[in-house]
Design a protein that fits this description.
By secondary structure, this protein is an alpha+beta fold. The chain has 17 helices and 18 strands. It has an eight-stranded mixed β-sheet with strand order 6-10-11-18-17-16-15-14, sandwiched between helices. A five-stranded mixed barrel has the order 1-2-3-5-4. It has a three-stranded antiparallel β-sheet with strand order 7-9-8, with no helix packed on it. Strand 8 and strand 9 form a beta hairpin. The longest helix is centred in the middle third of the chain and has 23 residues, at about 160-185. The chain is elongated and about 95 Å long. The mean pLDDT is about 95.
């Protein structure tokens, strides 16, 4: 039967309900128990012959002459309903099956009993339609096979796919455990602006939007960093934020244009403290959510190894960044060396830091399974991180690497206003040369630094990607209710 014909038939059933003097879309139900509560309390409810009222979406209808079995489902579970003509009466029994379709929402009133097969069941005494549906659900065994269709019609995916619903329950629990961890460690949860005059805190191309009253453009934030560090300047010592950020970049299994970021900052701390803290944050949150540290094909049991960026870069490419960055014409020397690696599609017309990063992402990062800490990134690719005092070409920075992907980034924050300004100027030079991801100068942030920011450690991670990895999910879009689609 064509979809339009199915819809027309269901609308006719809707009219029957109205003609019978019933409201097919009442404002409330009289539910006494969730299905899970009826299951857990079944023995007492059945023995005492107490009437219960359950509600849910009809998932199955199986009629046998003068009796029928239905199955309804609410968020907490499924329950079997037994309807008898002798119990309901001829008119109500016939009317029920004249108007019902799989997918409708139904309120059922009755007593509980066990069938001969030992199935927990409600004997139907009365019923009420809660919502009449017009469109049929996908077939149970064929369902939504097309992944794109699942994401576009997530509501159908959630109806048909218990595994999908479970993913989002676990994601909610994961966020709860993260918040509990920060509260336990005396952090204040804060909120900072989404619309910014100057986007900063990450290498990313921003989205632009228009403010009509002010008659000016704003950017959707690409990071939470610079506003949170302003709060450290203002006197708070431990702050965190979980909020949406927006990056106008490519779409793949690990990247979204709109995603949830966690960032936190702690005064009077450095990156060594931060690594220990992050290790505890990840392992406690994962253990509480999944019940184990061996999840997603990984073992998160600490301690995690620490890998020096310069050492692993030399091991994988035979290029010594110390030699390149300390001596001679940096970019020319580096390009001569990387040409020998025979890497295709590298952009060699950009800044040295961006070239280093391209080589790292092609030859180094994919081989690090982790979880591990990659430490001491070059200054050239770390415009907001503090230099190592004994090795000024390096920074007190680390990334959490898992399965060849970055799952978190932190460092001892740069709080020298002059050094920060010089690095912003270098980013501006790259931006003027065509690098859309290079950072802009934020004069207000620089002014805040000139009022003084104490030694501070800061960290950020995309929650969606972290949860994806911990849950062993292959695509980040599986962790988002309504991901952006092409």
């Amino acid at each position: 039967m064509a979809l339009e014909e199915i819809r027309d038939n269901r609308i006719k059933k809707l009219e029957k309900i109205k003609e019978a003097g019933q409201n097919p879309y009442p404002a409330k139900s009289n539910r006494t128990h969730k299905i899970s509560e009826a299951i857990l309390g079944f023995e007492k409810l059945a023995n005492d012959k107490l009437e219960v009222i359950l509600t849910g979406r009809i998932r199955l209808i199986r009629a046998h002459g003068g009796s029928a079995f239905l199955q309804i489902e609410d968020e907490s579970g499924k329950f079997q309903i037994f309807a008898k003509r002798d119990e309901l009466g001829e008119e109500k029994y016939k009317f029920l099956f004249d108007i019902l379709d799989i997918g409708d929402f139904l309120e059922v009133n009755g007593t509980l009993f066990l069938t001969q097969k030992g199935e927990k069941t409600l004997l139907l005494k009365s019923y009420k339609i809660l919502a009449k549906t017009f469109l049929p659900l996908p077939e149970k065994w064929h369902g939504l096979q097309d992944t794109e269709e699942r994401f576009r019609k997530r509501y159908l995916d959630l109806i048909m796919n218990e595994d999908a619903r479970e993913i989002f329950r676990k994601r909610g629990l994961f966020l709860d455990t993260i918040r509990e961890f920060f509260k336990k460690n005396n952090f204040l949860e804060v909120e900072t602006p989404i619309l910014e005059d100057v986007p900063g805190g990450a290498d990313a191309e921003p989205f632009i939007t228009r403010h009509n009253v002010l008659d000016k453009n704003f950017y959707l934030r690409i990071s939470l960093e610079l506003h949170l560090k302003r709060l450290i300047v203002g006197g708070y010592e431990n702050v965190f934020e979980i909020g949406k950020v927006f990056r106008n970049e490519g779409m793949d299994t690990e990247h979204l244009q709109e995603f949830t970021m966690l960032e936190f900052y702690s005064a009077y701390k450095d990156y060594n403290y931060l690594m220990d803290f992050v290790e505890r944050l990840y392992t406690e949150s994962i253990k509480k959510t999944f019940g184990t540290l061996e999840t997603g094909g990984l073992n998160f049991t600490p301690p995690w190894p620490k890998i020096d960026y310069f050492d692993i870069f030399r091991e994988k490419t035979e290029i010594d960044l110390n030699e390149i960055l300390v001596n001679g014409d940096v970019k020319t020397t580096f390009i001569e060396k990387i040409k020998k690696l025979n890497l295709e599609t590298l952009d060699l017309d950009t800044g040295t830091g961006r070239i280093i990063d391209q080589v790292y992402k092609r030859l180094v990062r994919p081989d690090i399974k982790g979880p591990a800490f990659l430490i001491h990134h070059p200054v050239l690719i770390s415009p907001l991180a503090k230099r190592k005092e004994d090795e000024p070409q390096k920074t007190e920075r680390f990334q959490v690497l898992i399965n060849g992907s970055e799952i978190g980034n932190g460092f001892s924050e740069l709080n020298d206003p002059l050094d920060q300004r010089a690095r912003f100027y270098e980013q501006t030079r790259l931006r003027e040369a065509g690098d859309k991801e290079a950072q802009m100068i934020d004069e207000d942030f620089l002014m805040a630094l000139e009022y003084g920011m104490p030694p501070t450690a800061g960290f950020g991670v995309g929650i969606d990607r972290l949860f994806m990895v911990a849950a062993g999910i292959s695509s980040i879009r599986e962790t988002i209710f309504f991901p952006m689609m092409k």
